[in-house]
Write a structure and sequence with these properties.
By secondary structure, the chain is an alpha+beta fold. Helix content is 45%, strand content 17%. The model has no long low-confidence stretch (mean pLDDT 88).
């Protein structure tokens, strides 16, 4: 399985790595060379499109520090003897942003503050590199990185999607009628702001969160991971998802303020690296993330705990909006 990547080990040691996308990711240590690689297994041929997207994005960004180097990729798994895609990429010494959050959220002065600023600067630069890749339309990408299904991130589309999820699919029952009506009224009143960036489209990570951001050890650089849900959208989709996940992992008001400052620093670096954002980027990011939150509500099998978090996020967004 590793031979096509030029690896001919006498023995290998596999360590399962955490993954929130229902896929298998392993740290591979070869013996006796003691070389480290990352092996990612996609579930089956239903994920060929996700696999192809990730491979093509790696090819597009070859040589760019924003993404690890891909060594080999195949749709055929020789171990399973089936159409089960997998990739082999370089191992980068470091920790994900999610693993580093305890350090990030520490409020003592000095090197912790410097660590946050350097990490935010590297992340902003990496995102600017990603978002430079443009498209003619917004929507879902196919395996050739073409927009296969147009899905505009406009105010009208947000209203239509909210109506479809909350009313037509009766998801208002999961939220509770009062919260569902408040949310529909909020979207109807504020969604037009999204039309300020109508027509613009760039390559988005799609599910950018702390677990998809690798901080390289000993260097002021980050790498972005897991592009299988990449989307042709606006930068606000990525910044909105990152904002929400950072706040979800923050414990208390002090850490929430630190998370927001980290996001502000990331945006400042993004702009210095040539990234373009509207002056109202924060509110645009919140509104764009409503597409993701509604998608979570629309997915099957949400547990009571997951529904509680979704309801809390909707409520928090409408409350925070009053003070922006």
């Amino acid at each position: 399985m590793l031979a096509p990547a030029g690896i001919l080990p006498e023995d290998v040691q596999l360590t399962t790595l955490p993954s929130d996308r229902h896929r298998h990711v392993y740290l591979v240590e070869t013996m006796p060379q003691k070389q480290k690689l990352i092996l990612k297994l996609f579930n089956d041929d239903r994920e060929v499109c996700s696999f192809e997207k990730e491979v093509r994005i790696h090819q597009l960004l070859t040589g760019n520090g924003a993404i690890p180097k891909l060594l080999y990729a195949s749709q055929e798994n020789p171990l399973l003897g089936s159409r089960s895609p997998y990739t082999v990429r370089t191992f980068i010494e470091g920790k994900t942003l999610q693993e580093s959050l305890p350090e990030l959220f520490q409020l003592d002065a000095g090197n912790r503050h410097e660590y946050r600023e350097k990490t935010a600067a590297a992340l902003g630069s990496a995102l600017a590199s990603l978002h430079r890749i443009g498209f003619n339309n917004q929507g879902y990408l196919d395996g050739e990185l073409k927009v296969g299904r147009v899905a505009p991130l406009s105010g009208k589309e947000l209203e239509i999607y909210a109506e479809a999820v909350l009313v037509a699919k009766a998801k208002e029952n999961a939220l509770g009628k009062d919260l569902a009506l408040r949310l529909l009224a909020f979207i109807e009143q504020e969604a037009d702001l999204l039309d300020a960036v109508k027509g613009f489209s760039c390559l988005c990570h799609g599910k950018l969160g702390p677990a998809a951001i690798l901080i390289q050890e000993g260097e002021n650089q980050v790498s972005l991971l897991d592009f299988d849900e990449a989307f042709a959208g606006t930068p606000y989709l990525d910044f909105g998802n990152l904002r929400r996940e950072l706040l979800e992992l923050a414990a208390g008001e002090a850490e929430e303020e630190t998370a927001k400052q980290f996001l502000q620093n990331t945006v400042a670096s993004y702009k210095r690296a040539g990234g373009k954002l509207d002056q109202d980027w924060y509110r645009l990011s919140i509104l764009s993330d409503l597409f993701n939150l509604l998608g979570k509500l629309d997915s099957r099998g949400n547990s009571e705990a997951e529904l509680t978090i979704i309801k809390l996020r909707f409520s928090e967004i409408m409350t925070e909006w009053l003070f922006l």
